[in-house]
Design brief:
The chain contains six helices and no strands. The chain is mainly α. It has one domain. The longest helix is centred in the middle third of the chain and has 21 residues. The radius of gyration is 18 Å and the shape is elongated. It starts with 14 loop residues before the first helix and ends with a helix.
Length: 125
């Protein structure tokens, strides 16, 4: 019996919002990693205190989880997910900066971001 090839057709999402959402969904970890690196640089330059850093990141995570649960699937929900992923990557910086030094904390967060990206690439669908 001859095996026939399997053909998969992916329909292009209608409208700019659907296309933007599909693009963002396919690159969610990479965009979150870029945002986390930008936040890391901003944190190192501004150097807010330990408590202020934790409160800002924690509030951003709370808002993202609260909004993400109420939003329907689409571009807004994908943006909230990217912001939440970036905050999850960056929340360790104030803690590590207080425990060790800001330099060591920043290096460890960069390693954490690289680990997130490596895991995402490894288990990509």
């Amino acid at each position: 019996m001859e095996r026939l090839p399997v053909i998969t057709v992916e329909e292009r999402p209608p409208g700019w919002s659907g296309r933007a959402s599909a693009w963002l969904r396919s690159r969610r970890i990479a965009v979150a990693a870029a945002l986390a690196l930008a936040e890391l640089i901003a944190y190192v330059v501004v150097r807010p205190g330990f408590l202020i850093g934790i409160v800002i990141v924690a509030l951003a995570l709370i808002v993202c989880f609260a909004a993400g649960g109420r939003l329907e699937s689409g571009l807004a929900r994908d943006l909230v997910m990217v912001i939440a992923l970036a905050q999850a990557m960056v929340i360790a910086l104030p803690i590590l900066g207080a425990l060790f030094s800001l330099f060591i904390g920043a290096l460890l967060v960069i390693v954490l971001i690289a680990l997130f990206v490596a895991i995402a690439v490894r288990f990509r669908r």
